[in-house]
Amino acid sequence: MLPEIWSYIETEDGSPDDTAYMMAAESRRTAGIFNAEACAVIFGSPALKILEELKWYGLKKVYLFKIASRLSPEGIARALHKAALKYNPQFLLFADTPSGSEVAARTAASLKRGLISNCIDFESEDGKPIARKAVYNGKAHAAFAWESYSPYLATINLSSLENAKEKNKNNPELISEEVKTESAITTLIRKWEVRRSELDLCEARVVIGVGRGVDVHFMETIRRLADLIQGVIGGSRIAVYTGLIPLDRQIGTTGKWLNSDIYFTIGISGAPQHVMGIKGVKKIIALDIAKQAPIFRYAKLGIIGDMHEVIPKLINLLESDAKRDP
Amino acid sequence: MKIIICLKLITEPDVVEFDIKSEQLHDIYKVLDHIGYHLIEEALLLRKKLGGEVIGVSVAPEEGDEILKNALIYGIDRAMRIWRDDFQHADTWKSSLAIAEILREIGFDLVLCGTKSKDTGSGFMVSALAEHLRVPSATGIIGIEAVNDKKIVVHKKLMKGKRETYNLELPAVLGLEEGINEPGYVAPFSRTYRRGMGRKVELILPKLLKTEGNRLIKTLRFSQPSPRVKVGKDVSSLSIQDKLKMMRGELGREKEELFNGSPEDAARKIFNQLKETIK
Asked: Among residues B6, B151, B150, B160, which one has the least CA distance to residue B68?
């Protein structure tokens, strides 16, 4: 029987987290490297939609741990500990999100097994698995090896994850188990959310970047746009120098590194130092008047045009849309 | 109340250089991990509120004395350096065992650590300590409200603006984030400064047996950053150009669109893209 690779699928109140399906794909990828079976682990009572969607990721087994109420990271770790001793998987993989890495660390500590966090890749060396991760701000990669027995625990770097589906559906074996919830020492009081436009740049989902091309008087219009799309305004070093944005809103090698869903640049040409900081962005929209601006090479959508004409029209569109669909 | 802060001596990531030829790290310059200053500040704030003492501990070689002395100058009450020669290549687990041993001896109410260090950042210390000491833990903390010396309320940072608030019973181990406070400043020759100068860093030898303090992971080597193989792709079959593209993250990316038309159409195009992503 082949060893199993377990991927911890994060769900929140029954709906999938951003990383959920990516972790399923990661399970299959790792299974390919070590010639093992790809499996997924879910806690809670997920919607049928998730289980249906998971069929696209070439998984062999799905372990479903049913819980009556919400479990703390410690509770999940305890349940994973028991399950790992029972089924003996070779790997336990987690996404490197705040909650994923906490569960991973607690599980590793209670199993007394090694944890390598923020991994980029796995390799097999002399029949033993090794993991590679970026260290010292990405200046070098370091190879780590587990000195403990299996299961080997690892968390996966978020920008390395990818949502890769298989061509065909398959039917993974579903193994469900009840998990008793014990009384927790840590109790959740409430959940809350910070307003999107007040977030720090590293955390923001929507970012607007301003550069040399933007005039001080035009900032008011850009702030209006930021309000409408609930985005955070950042910018290049020049924008800091000209006083458009404060220093803590600088994007690039010497400033903040973005990890947002969308980055809309206005009047930024795209110097290498700036582009380094926007590597993690999922979608870049660039607006600049110069056709040869290097930023267009990185943008999903590049617009050559005058911001003084395009932005007010965009604001009109957004405003009328907001009225129609409040 | 006894507040313990775990300070880490790290290789300054901004200064260190990796030499591709020799595959070695250069310019290794040891400093206190920046979260350490936040830990000191938070511990001092809590001490002000609840009273008690603040003890700084660090698993570090002789170089660590300097950072602990610095912490004393900032106003903490005691500083302990834990070290034995076989800790040279210790991993987080081994260090955590040593710290836990000392903490059991001196007693504690609240242990503050950084969630992840800046250099290698395994993020394992908080959970490992909590496991050894059999106390609750929480990481990613951006706010602590001290209710009394038996109970605290903590705010936890999750992704994309989501936050959670928890009730925790003391003793507990917490992993803090940098956003928790602004590190304070001590004026040279002020009272706090002079008192700190007068204190000494204590050196402690852990009794930990070599067998129980086995490492769980080891560092094999450092290498040049190289691309990750995509799901279902064999990297050895790629050409050099494709490998370079992969490193820059350009391989298999969707075709970009460059639009040069009327402002109306341009605005409409941006609007559609924004709408697609922002729900």
From this structure: B6
CB contact under 8 A, A139 and B13: yes
Of A143, A190, A199, the CB nearest to B223: A143
* Integer Cα distance of B162 and A130 in angstroms: 33
Residue with tokens 């990818």: A162
Kindly state the tokens that stand for B1: 């109340």
**Residue A241: which H helix or E strand, with range?**
helix A237-241
CA separation (Å) from A8 to A17, A91, A135? Answer: 11, 11, 24
* Nearest CA-CA distance, residue A278 and chain B, Å: 12
Q: Cα B224 vs. chain centroid, distance in angstroms?
A: 24
Q: Nearest C-alpha of chain B: how many angstroms from A299?
A: 6
- Check if A219 contacts B (Cβ < 8 Å): no
Count Cα atoms within 13 angstroms, Cβ side, for B151: 7
% of chain A beyond a pLDDT of 70: 98
SS3 A117: strand
Q: Is the Cβ–Cβ distance between A4 and A89 less than 8 Å?
A: yes
DSSP string, B124-158: -HHHHHHHHHT--EEEEEEEEEEEETTEEEEEEE-
Q: Are A156 and B235 in contact (CB under 8 A)?
A: no
A156 CB neighbours in chain B (<8 A) are none
pTM over 0.80: yes
A50-78 b/e with 16+ CB inside 10 Å = b? Answer: beebbbbbbbbbbbbbebeeebbbbbbbb
Residue B206 is predicted with a pLDDT of 86
**pLDDT at residue number B102:** 92
**Cis peptide bond upstream of B206, omega within 30:** no
Residue A44: helix, strand or coil by DSSP?
Answer: coil
Give the angle subtended at the CA of A72 by the CAs of A68 and A75, to the nearest 5°. 75
**More reliable by pLDDT, B119 or A100:** A100
Residue type, A303: I
